[in-house]
Amino acid sequence: MSTEAAAVSTSYREALTQAMREELERDPDVFLIGEDIGLFEGSFKVTRGLLGEFGPDRVIDTPISEAGFVGLGIGAAMAGLRPVVELMTVNFAIVAMDQIVNNAAKIRYMFGGQVSVPLVIRMPGGAGHQLGAQHSHSLEAWFTHVPGLKVACPSTPYDAKALLKTAIRDDDPVIFLESEGLYAKKGPVGGPDDLVPFGQAAIRRTGQHCTVIAVSRMVWIALDAADTLAAEGIECEVVDPRTTRPLDMDAIVDSVRRTNHCVVVDEGWPECGLASNIATRVYEECFDWLDAPVQRVNAADVPIPYARNLEQSALPHAHDVAAAVRATLARGA
Amino acid sequence: MAEEAPVVKDTTVTPPGADAELMQRMFATMHLIRTFEERAAEEYMRGNIGGFLHLAIGEEAAVVGSVLALRPTDPITSTYREHGQALARGSEPRAVMAELFGRETGLCHGHGGSMHLMDRERFFFGGYGIVGGSIPLAVGLGFAISYRQEDGVALVMFGDGATNQGVLGESMNMAKLWSLPVIFFCLNNQYGMGTAVDRASAETQLTKRADAFGIPAHRIDGMDVLAVQQAVSDAAHHARSEQDPVMIEAIAYRYRGHSMSDPDRTRPEDEKARWRARDPLVTFERILLGEGLVTAEELAAVRDANQAAVDDAVAFANDSPPVPETALADDVYTDPWNDDSRGSARMPRRSA
Q1: Distances (CA, A) of B257 to B160, B252, B290
Q2: Are B250 and B187 in contact (CB under 8 A)?
Q3: Which domains can be identified in chain B, with CATH numbers?
Q4: β strands within A57-188, DSSP E
Q5: What is the C-alpha separation between A189 and B247, in angstroms, rounded?
Q6: Which value does ipTM take for this structure?
Q7: Of the candidates A180, A182, A166, A302, the residue with the CA atom closest to the CA atom of residue A243
Q8: Which residues of B touch A110 (CB under 8 A)?
Q9: Is B118 in Cβ contact with A75 (below 8 Å)?
Q10: Fewest beta carbons within 10 Å, which of A146, A236, B211, B321?
Q11: Band of residue B326 on the pLDDT scale cut at 50, 70, 90
């Protein structure tokens, strides 16, 4: 990142706004569409100011019809526009899954490459705010499962901006998963032409004892755990894939073959999850290098509960990550 | 029970504004579709076509009347019963048949099949397999026309079954709310697979779906190609000039079961016979001959040409090479990456 940009501290939320503002200015085919993104400026205020700057033809408030306006975005993208669809949260994507999976992900392939779908669907996800079982999903695994989609999960303001710009310029449908818990997080961001390519992991911390792979908000709990463990003489290498599809297996494999231990952290459920998948791929490519089984750290295998203590108990925390690292190192000793 | 057709036309009267060339083209296209689909059924029975094969035999007037009423650059989406739409748009019978055969030379290089034809060059934006699923796509195509201030109109074709999918209401609402040039063309063939409209819909007059959104809607005889052509022409004019969506419900009938795997045992025989008696090709041929718009010899020549085109399409599909295995992962992405995670069999070992 450029030093000039690095000097500025910007929130993850404002980083996303900047990305959309710059891309709206850059390309007249880009437009924003979603529930309450215009007049109300977004449920999480990510589109603040954009209606005033770009007008109602390019910043469009929708009815509460997720399948309908996601489908509209796909159709507009087939015609060559570059819609950025906001779903108020990932939970409402479930209503639009037919459009996302059967249409957005399939259209290029099943029609033999005659059209592409340059569409971004942004949505915040994650739990931790006592929103109850229906508003607390982490569905990275659902989207990552589907060939034809790309899936970005930024963990920092810099990546939030740069990955969103990459997503908007990408010719394929991108599921852009933001974290409700990170919107206020501050950090440096890049300029108008600073992009992060998909499929390129970031090493957030280097270490020789154990690789910890985490995405989105989980990167931060992994870093907290790494701090705790450093005091015990355990050095973790924290790998943030940044996109789960494409997944930078080269970076993961390179790290695990050096540390010989691996923990994967994922806020979603454990069964058939993102961590399960990454763990499997680590086994496939690093089996002979591993000194102990891969450990997964996930949400509990329950709908996310309301009661604060139960919700916190259901979610992965730094101490869970630290415990997993200690466990795998103990096995490998 | 199925609907009676709204009107049986007096076939001795020249339709107003009759355009002889267009009428001849409509007959030729309907006959091409009929010939193509009857042959496709045979090829399916021979095992040359796999998967599902949904035939629109009996529905040709609705298909041809609507497609030919539009400009060639007006985008269309359709259902999985869409061979006719592609052919009416001018897709090569060879490329359509080869797609049904699953060959490299097919419209979609064998990745789509019967249900997923597309011909982007001809603004045919595809056949889709989930009932109702393509409706918002067409609204998006209409949105793009409006966004770019172009002069087109998007037409989405769907069946009576799709009117009970929530996404139709969502799509109609957005199209009206945002003044989009979209024609919602409901080809009511009176059965959602095996379930008659009155066993599925509390309100069987499907145009009333549009009333809820203030969208003008017209119920027409879908067995009458001229009625369909006129209604869609009017709808396109309205959508273009007023930037306003329109719904058309064309009542028609499919002669065959839902797909080739449906033995069609539940629809009453007398009902089928009644509709077959109003066959759109027979009816239209009578008009053309009666009005002296075409001679019997000319019709025979059209039939021969279509038969030859279909024979040629089948021969072409048969002779086309299979899709190369190397094309398996083509076109998943515009810009693919090398990440075959199919399994561990070819993964490296430490000793390697």
Answers
A1: 15, 14, 33
A2: yes
A3: 20-324 (3.40.50.970)
A4: 59-61, 82-86, 120-125, 150-152, 174-179, 186-187
A5: 49
A6: 0.95
A7: A166
A8: 108, 111-112, 116
A9: no
A10: B321
A11: confident
